[in-house]
Specification:
5 strands, globular
Length: 119
């Protein structure tokens, strides 16, 4: 499903990030870049990069970089938002294509959201 795709992961929990990376590997992602382990800004190498999909913890992404949402929208990058609260205010402000997955999530939850975005 993700053969040849490049994915951005923004997640502050190392355990969750590793789980996501495992799913992406199983789905055939060519490359994934993970950020969020306490950083307050994304490295410039990431903001200059091109991604086919982003998987973002809503709260972590909002803390890391105010320009993250703009970067993804301008590049037309679809986003899977991860949240503990499905009513989180961060989702409606994103104008691009997105899916929301509530934590804790299953393999099927994440794969389903990715499949709906990568068509």
């Amino acid at each position: 499903m993700l053969s040849g795709k490049s994915i951005l992961i923004v997640e502050d929990s190392a355990l969750i990030a590793v789980d996501i990376e495992s799913v992406l590997s199983e789905l055939g992602a060519a490359r994934f870049v993970t950020a969020g382990g306490g950083e307050t800004r994304l490295p410039s190498s990431i903001t200059d990069d091109q991604f086919d999909l982003a998987i973002l913890d809503i709260r972590t992404a909002s803390v890391i970089d105010n320009d993250l949402s703009s970067m993804l929208k301008s590049g037309g990058v679809p986003v899977v938002f991860l949240t503990t609260d499905p009513q989180d205010d961060g989702v409606p402000s994103f104008a691009g294509r997105f899916e929301t997955v509530q934590k804790p999530f299953t393999y099927e939850d994440l794969c389903g959201a990715i499949a709906r975005l990568i068509t």
